[in-house]
Amino acid sequence: MEAKKVEETRALACHARDLLRYQLVAAAHRPLCIDEQRELRIALQQLLPCLSIIRSYEQEYTYLSTYELAISAVGQVLGSLAAAETTVNAEDRQLVKAKHDAEHHRKEDNPKASATLSTPAAPLEAAAAFVPASCARQAAATASSVTWKNTYGCDDAILALRQATTLPLQHPSLFTGPRQPWRRLLLYGPPGTGKTRLAAATAAEYGAMLLSVSAADLLSKWVGESEKQVRQAFMQAAASAPRCVLFFDEVDALCSARGGHGESELARRLKTELLLHLQMDLPAVTVLAATNLPWELDAAFLRRFDRFIHVSLPSDAVKRRLLGSELRGVAHTITDDALDRIVAQTDRFSVVDVRRLLSHAVMAPVTEWLRLTQATVDDRSSDSRESAEAGNTEVLGAGVRSVTSGTESTPHMHCRLPGNHANDVPFVEYRHFESALQVITATTSAEEIARYATWRCRSAGV
């Protein structure tokens, strides 16, 4: 038996000598017991293993594009492909059922039925939306709607991020010799300026997978487990094809200055492991880190980054554009002059502060409408009770009968109020923003802004 296995392995190696430069051969007595979650990284330039897997679908699904599907299968494992096959079978059964129903009812003139049967979609490509690559299952998914266009107040930061990510893809001839794209970038600035949103938008614009890591994901009470989580995060990022953005949120919780009073052995080992992996050269991985306290970071950690990007507070023009854009979705009486007066009162407001102010102001008419509605319902209920008491005491002839009906005593929850649409909610007015400004204040103080400016000058950041 062993000799037969050796001969078969030798024959396969001779046959595949011209196809692959390296081969990985493994033998198993129980192949069905192999763990499907065991991942094998397939590089993008070695598509033949992916092609051999995808060709198994060609017998039943002849309309699939084998080469394109092989490219999309990079990063998948057997379990992911099995889940995709299940989705394909479900789509195929739905297509057969639609065809059978169309033939049975003879609805050739139905455009919906003809469209369903004329152009069969690639179900395996559709399944990729529901079955992501296995290396991304523990990653934070990037919303497709998050782009640089709807990220307010970050123009300088977006310019630096574009120079580090999308520009090398669009113009690779610019980055030759010592001019190489930045791979490790630190986003710093006051809270609420959109650093996390910038990371998600960068991954979406870059066409990369976003792996978001926080301190809670890495810290563990078990010895050696935190360092293992750091290694696994970088291995996951390297295995994510074709590109990956590895994002460390609130990195000051991980890499504060070493040697401080009360620093534990676990924290020192975690920082050392993270510093070692930040030195690794991973061309397909862009490391982003965000912090509100850059002056708390360790000096060795700062030296690992190629670029410091300051995400500052939005300007008055950005805040005005944000308020004007959001107010288009509600009925209001805010003029341009009133909008300028509102913006003038939002000194040191971050993007999150402006959104909180807007949310509080647009909800004020709803609160007024609800109070007025409840007062109207209470008045009608009181009148109904008084009418019922008067009707029950009215004597006609020899008996006593009620003159009120059941429907009249029932309170009406929908009343007509002065407003602008079917629900009659009042318009958003300038006074609502004035009231909101009494409650919503800036979360960043003038001293903190000065401290960011000082650190920016010392670090020679953006």
TrEMBL record:
InterPro entries listed in its UniProt record: AAA+_ATPase, ATPase_AAA_core, ATPase_AAA_CS, MT-severing_AAA_ATPase, P-loop_NTPase
Residue runs in coiled coils: none
Entry's family note: Belongs to the AAA ATPase family.
Pfam families xref list: AAA
Protein name: ATPase associated with various cellular activities (AAA) family protein
Gene3D superfamilies on file: 1.10.8.60, P-loop containing nucleotide triphosphate hydrolases (3.40.50.300)
Highest taxon, organism lineage: Eukaryota
Molecular-function GO terms, alphabetical: ATP binding; ATP hydrolysis activity
Region (Disordered): 380-418
Organism: Leishmania donovani
Occurrences of domain AAA+ ATPase (ranges): 181-315
Any GO BP annotation: endosomal transport
Keywords of the record: ATP-binding, Nucleotide-binding
